[in-house]
What does this fold into?
Amino acid sequence: QVQLVESGGGLVQAGGSLRLSCAASGSIFRIDIMGWYRQAPGKQREKVASITRSGITNYADSVKGRFTISGDNAKNTVYLQMNSLKPDDTAVYYCNTIALTSARFGDFWGQGTQVTVSS
It folds into this structure.
């Protein structure tokens, strides 16, 4: 299977920056997409950004121009640079990957990392 280990969350003031990292490990044959989702209290989980193996990126409208996703295929790692953070960005951020492993092809999720933006 795939293990996703996230790091980089924390508490930051509005206007500040944070960088999230997520490293995938396990019996991975191929990673097609890596991305970040978030879930705020009382809200549904939403997609924040994703990056394909070939480097094509996609962003939620709410983070365009403020967040940047990047990846390192050799390390099976994805990063999310978050700038100009707002209180509305407060959520648990989850790493996600669509990957082919020795067991199956499908979605895998990390445990989540808390991001709190104070006003």
User: Anything to note?
Assistant: The chain has a mean pLDDT of 96. The radius of gyration is 14 Å. The longest strand covers residues 28-39. The CA atoms of residues 30 and 100 lie 5 Å apart.
